[in-house]
Specification:
Elements (H helix, E strand, L loop, with lengths): L3 E5 L4 H12 L3 E6 L18 E5 L14 E4 L6 H6 L1 H22 L2 E7 L26 H21 L3 E6 L2 E2 L10 H11 L3 E4 L5 E3 L1 E2 H13 L6 E3 L4 E3 H12 L5 E4 L14 H7 L7 H17 L10 H8 L3
Parallel strand pairs: 1-2, 1-4, 2-3, 4-5, 5-6, 6-11, 7-10, 8-13
Antiparallel strand pairs: 9-12
Helix pairs in contact: 1-6, 3-4, 5-7
The protein binds nicotinamide-adenine-dinucleotide and uridine-5'-diphosphate.
Length: about 325
């Protein structure tokens, strides 16, 4: 049966893929976004399709939706370290006040609520891989604290609404996800490496590049989120691909896949940069019957192809990110 779904942050990378999948299967979508780190261009192809509405809204102000709502997917928040360090207060506000408003909407409409939380709640983990039972190792006063603590607060608030107001809530802890529609200047490793490799520029690996991430293609993640939206599990549930890779190996892989001649250069490692990260996805498999299906190499190839197509359309003709500025921001100065 068709549902009416509110997606906050729906014009962002993940949000736009969620909106697209929902519209494709016949649901109605109200996409709320203030375009802080996302763009209307991400959902341009959905404009005019039956059941899709884009509303420019800052969810920290107020959320007002006329009519029934079945599901609220709360994805509004800067997500890349460069973005949230550029917007530290907006990040804390959307994680706290924005989550409060999104929960209030779900309560008012008796809707299912799903919070996009993050593997960053585990900080620089001392347990590997990370199960949901691990409390994490987060520095609240380090530069990443603005994001990590906003998400930890959002998780606590979500459970308070579940226990106090009986809202049907779920929390997903999303691990590093990549794919088409990532901004080439968002500063995350994969879009940075692809953009640099395609431009023949040096590929910037932080530190010695031995730090790891586990990377999931966006299509798999969207399937997991929608499975969570349709379950009544409270979570938190880890969603991510356990395929773990060192950043230096990832840089070499992307250079190889793009056929680039780019050299690798080493830049300073950001403060509190997690050293290892890998989801334990046992719970997602057991509760949602979910596991990633797209091979990482296949996902990277599809992402590179999308970046190439954007370049052909000159869609990226924006001033390139100044790497010095990025390093400075990542140091939290
Ligand atoms: P993104 O920056 O592309 O998308 C976030 C969207 O939220 C943007 O469109 C932005 O404009 C919007 N937004 C920010 N503040 C807002 C506000 N106050 N009101 C309305 N809209 C607002 O990032 P993303 O990678 O798509 O991440 C989406 C969500 O998933 C975030 O909550 C993020 O924390 C979470 N997440 C993402 C990843 C990942 O690997 N991509 C990993 C863990 C968690
Ligand atoms: N990183 C890198 N070069 C870059 C951007 C990031 O080596 O140009 C490193 C970063 O220091 C981290 C890893 O890649 O160790 C993943 O960073 P990203 O910003 O993609 O994700 P997050 O740190 O939020 O997991």
């Amino acid at each position: 049966m068709s549902q009416r779904v509110v997606v906050t942050g729906g014009a962002g990378f993940l949000g736009s893929h969620l909106c697209e999948r929902l519209i494709d299967r016949g649901d109605h979508v109200v996409c709320l976004d203030n375009f802080l780190t996302g763009s209307a261009a991400n959902v341009e192809h959905l404009q005019g399709r039956s059941g899709f509405r884009l509303v420019r809204t800052d969810v920290t102000d107020y959320i007002h939706i006329v009519g029934d709502v079945d599901v609220v997917l709360h994805f509004a928040s800067p997500a890349s370290p460069v973005d949230y360090l550029r917007h530290p207060i907006a990040t804390l506000k959307v994680g706290s006040i924005g989550t409060l408003h999104a929960l209030g909407l779900a309560k008012d409409k008796s809707a299912r609520f799903v919070l996009a939380s993050t593997s960053e709640v585990y900080g620089d983990p001392e347990v590997h891989p990370q199960p949901e039972s691990y409390w994490g190792h987060v520095n609240p006063v380090g530069p990443r604290g603005v994001y990590d603590e906003a998400k930890r607060f959002a998780e606590a608030l979500t459970l308070a609404y579940r226990h106090t107001h009986g809202v049907d809530t779920g929390i997903v802890r999303i691990f590093n996800t990549f794919g088409p529609r990532m901004r080439p200047d968002d500063g995350r490793a994969i879009p940075n490496f692809i953009r640099q490799a395609l431009a023949g520029e040096p590929v910037t690996v932080a530190g010695d590049g031995k730090q790891t991430r586990s990377i999931c293609f966006v299509d798999d993640l969207v399937t997991g989120i929608l499975a969570m939206a349709h379950s009544d599990h409270s979570g938190p549930i880890n969603l991510g691909n356990p395929h773990e890779i060192a950043m230096l190996d990832l840089a070499r892989w992307i250079i190889d896949l793009t056929g680039s001649q780019s050299p690798i250069v080493h830049i300073e490692r950001p403060v509190d940069d997690p050293t290892i990260r890998q989801p334990d996805t046992t719970l997602a498999e057991a509760v949602l019957g979910w596991q990633p299906e797209v091979e990482v190499g296949e996902g990277l190839t599809r992402t590179i192809e999308w970046f190439r197509a954007q370049e052909r359309r000159h869609a990226f003709d924006v001033p390139p990110l100044d790497p010095q500025a990025t390093e400075h921001i990542l140091r939290g100065e």
